């Protein structure tokens, strides 16, 4: 009966609405939606471009993407390292980049030492070039890469044996011991370079002070930069070395477990990784 009580001539529109009201709020909402759609479109285009670049990279070099100028291995912290450990590995990679820059500056400083008339300038320059050519790749392979593999999402050693399977993260003690051994040597080497003994290829403290004392300010300034670089990367690595050691102890890694992993899978799994 309620349907017969309704007024068939009643308007469904409210008479309270003013037809002369400003339509700007509605226009603002429309503009905001358009801007949001444009932003999403740009984001989709950016992602599509990244996907195309990755596809081209894989087509040309396979999964290998590092170093960028001549890919030899696959290196992607965001893809391979769990989120909880991502910041740690990122900091270690940044410290390795600081080491690389320091080796370059150290060589430049030794060139300036030679120009300034240093008695052992030739030996220092030769040593600094040798350090750049040897320490840069060896440090990456012998202490950075092992700890990168140690924190990886997929078990690298078993992934080599079962390449088609995605295996859950289970840390490998072997990688931790490789890191502790070679990174320990690198920390000692960093102290050696900070000191800056003449004729050793180091533009450290002793050499830098000598440059300032003889009035060779340009050589002294570059030597100071090199010394700061050695100090920063050395202290940074020492800090994370201790942090990783605590994690290694809490995880219960043992030498026997590392030996068992090496005997089971061999060293080939590490060198063919990536």
Termini Cα gap: 79 Å
- Number of separate strands: 0
State the helicity in percent bands.
over 70%
Number of helices: 11
Please describe the biggest sheet, giving its number of strands, its sense, and whether it closes into a barrel: none
Walk me through this protein's architecture.
The longest helix is centred in the first third of the chain and has 38 residues, at 24-61. Helix 7 packs antiparallel against helix 9, helix 7 (173-195) packs across helix 10 (255-265) and helix 8 packs antiparallel against helix 9 (217-251). With 274 residues, the chain is mainly α. It has helices at 2-5, 24-61, 77-80, 83-115, 121-150, 156-161, 173-195, 205-213, 217-251, 255-265, 268-271. The chain is built from eleven helices and no strands.
